[in-house]
Structures are given as C-alpha cells and as structure tokens.
Specification:
alpha/beta; Rossmann fold; 15 helices; 37% helix
C-alpha cells in the first residue's frame, strides 16, 4: 500500500501524522511511504530522518493526495484538503465530525473511507488513540489556565498555589476521565485547591482510592456544578461523549455569577465545547472574554508541545495503521471490532451513529459498510 502523510495546515498545528519510526515499520513490511517535504519540522523531525527510514519526500500535498492509497494525518482535513480526497481513498486521522457539518458533507461527497482516531476503542472500553492526546491536553490545561489567570492576560491575578497567608486558586475540573484526571493531578501539583466532578460513582471511588486527598471529588449534578463554578477561579471542561457533541455544562447566564476574571479552559472544544460561550481559538490568539470571564478554547492544545504529542500519538496509532496497510481497511476492520468502531464515513454514507444523530443524517451500520 502507498501511505501518504501531508504537512498539517491547520493554524499553529506543528504535529505530524507519522514519525520516522512509524515510516520505518511500514517500509519494513513492504509498503511505500511518502512524506510531504517539511511535514515533520514542527515536531523536530527532518526530511533526512524520513529518508533514512526508507520514505520518499514529496514536495506537494496535491501529489500525496493524488497518489496515496491511505492518508495519515493528525487533525481533520481542512477544506482545501477535503477537495483533494477521492473515492475509495482511506483517511486515518482525528475527525470530530459531530460539531462539523461542513467537514462531514465534504467527506461524504468525496466518497472516501474515513476512520477517526477518536472513536477507535479497546477491550477496557477506552479510546486508545484519543488517550495520549487527552493526557497531553489534560496536563496542559492547568498550565495554560494559570497563564490566562494572570492579570496581564485578563485574569483575576491569582497564583495557582498561593503563598503563605494567601489562599491558593480554586480549580474545578468537570469530568473525571483521562483529561480530567491529568488536569486535576497537575493543578493540585501546582498547589491549587482542586475539585473534580463526575457522574460515575465507580470512577469517583477509583479517583479517591488512587489519589486520596491530593484533590477532592464530588458527584456531578447541575446544582453542585453551578455552586462550584460560582466559587472557582478556574474551570476546566473535560467531558467527552465518544463521537458526539459535548454537552453544555456551563450556561451564559452562569458567567454573570462567576468571579470577574475567572478562567474557563475548554478541552472539549474539538467536540463543540462544554461551555455555552465556547468558540474555537488558535495558539496565535488563544483567549477571549465574555461577561468578564476569560475563555481559553484552543482546538489543538497538544500542538503546543508538538514533539511530545507526535511521538505519543505515533506510538498509539502505528499498530492500527500497519494493520490497515497490511490487510486493507475492510479486512482489518472485520478482524478488529475496535478498529471498526473508528469507521465514521464510507462511500458517501455516515457509519457512526452519534455523528448521524448530531447532524440529522442517515446512518448505515459499519458492519454493513465492510460487506
């Protein structure tokens, strides 16, 4: 199979879809790998690194899209890239289709087959290709939130850990999954007073057993969320419904009850965001203010630490990428129900129920698609 990896063109996206190590593994199995010139530069990989791994360097994205059987990326294809996709081509990347009707319709029109990292599952009910970026984003969230909280950036001017005689920042993390757990760990490590909210009692018990008094946890109800948000200096939104649009957990009206200069960090922005006032931003212009509350809603947070993120993502995606290349996507998905769960679009049809429900589109089962 010919596997192509173009340069990411989303603003301030420095990650790359394939590491040289992944390219070497694919070449060793008899596949051709083509990498766009400079694709790995933002993550610290040179064209020579890829050539040493056995890949070929191609000057333009147009040539890669025109000749590759499988396109491997990080972020969802941008509008200009979607026009280059073709019928029968395999796209393997993050998609986040539920809040993105334009992308969904373009993928359907292209006739391509699209497998989304964020809906591939594992035996434990987890999302193994989303988890590494969730870990990165969770650990970044308190860091960028602390920066936003500084007075010069519009925040309250509160130090996360306080100082002797001055209370630390109050941080509320909504969601106790991978993102929320890592966010709570880092925020508490910075000395903040942290409370994590979740609706799963087994998850809350796990967090209590593992982390003890490192941070507090509380069952998530509308009332409990509203009370804690009102008291918070920083709220980190870390709620995920796989493949679906994120629920809105903090309303516009609640902003008026928050402390002036408080900070909202929306890690769920790729899925539409979990605050009513969230809108996607970039690393170049990451924050904005609504009703006196600062919002940090960068849609590709892990891109800020591109080398760490690229290597972590590559470690997770490589076995699936190799399976798709070795067997072809139909046989690979037939052999692996977890990979089949990643199938979102095929031949002009939506194949993931949550996407169809969010966008009002008809859905065919992925089992039918592979037949």
């Amino acid at each position: 199979m010919k596997i192509g990896c173009p340069t990411e063109i989303k603003p301030q996206e420095f990650r790359v879809g394939m590491t040289p190590n992944a390219a070497q593994e694919a070449v060793a199995r008899g596949h051709d790998v083509i990498i766009q010139a400079g694709a790995g530069a933002g993550a610290g990989f040179t064209d020579d690194d890829y050539v040493a791994a056995g890949a070929a360097i191609i000057d333009t994205a147009e040539e890669i899209f025109a000749t590759a059987d499988m396109i491997v990326k990080v972020k969802e294809p941008q509008a200009v890239e979607r026009k280059m996709l073709r019928e029968g081509q395999l796209l393997f990347t993050y998609l986040h289709l539920a809040p993105d009707p334009d992308q969904t319709h373009d993928l359907l029109e292209s006739g391509c087959t699209a497998i989304a990292y964020e809906t591939v599952t594992d035996d434990r009910g987890g999302l193994p290709l989303l988890a590494p970026m969730s870990e990165v984003a969770g650990r970044l969230a308190p860091q960028v939130g602390a920066w936003t909280l500084q007075k010069a950036n519009g925040g309250r001017g509160v130090l996360m850990g306080g100082v002797p005689g001055v209370a630390p920042a109050k941080v509320v993390v909504i969601g106790g999954g991978v993102v929320g757990t890592h966010a709570a760990k880092i925020a508490s490590g910075m000395g903040a007073d942290v409370t994590i909210l979740d609706r799963s009692l087994p998850r809350l018990k796990y967090l209590d057993d593992v982390f003890g008094r490192q941070f507090k946890n509380q069952y998530s109800t509308a009332g409990a969320t509203a009370e804690l948000v009102q008291q918070a200096d920083m709220v980190i939104g870390a709620v995920l419904i796989p493949g679906a649009a994120a629920p809105k957990l903090v309303s516009r009206a609640q902003l008026g009850e928050m402390k002036p200069g408080a900070v909202l960090v929306d890690v769920a922005i790729d899925q539409g965001g979990c605050f009513e006032t969230s809108k996607a931003t970039t690393h170049a212009d990451p924050i904005y203010e609504v009703d006196g509350v600062m919002h940090y809603c960068v849609a590709n947070m892990p891109g800020a630490v591109a080398r760490t993120s690229t290597i972590a993502l590559g470690n997770a995606t490589m076995p699936f990428m190799l399976s798709l290349a070795n067997k072809g996507w139909k046989q690979a998905c037939a052999d692996d129900a977890h990979l089949l769960n990643g199938l979102n679009v095929h031949a002009g049809k939506v194949t993931y129920y949550a996407v169809g429900e969010a966008l009002g589109l008809d859905v065919i089962s992925p089992q039918l698609a592979i037949k």
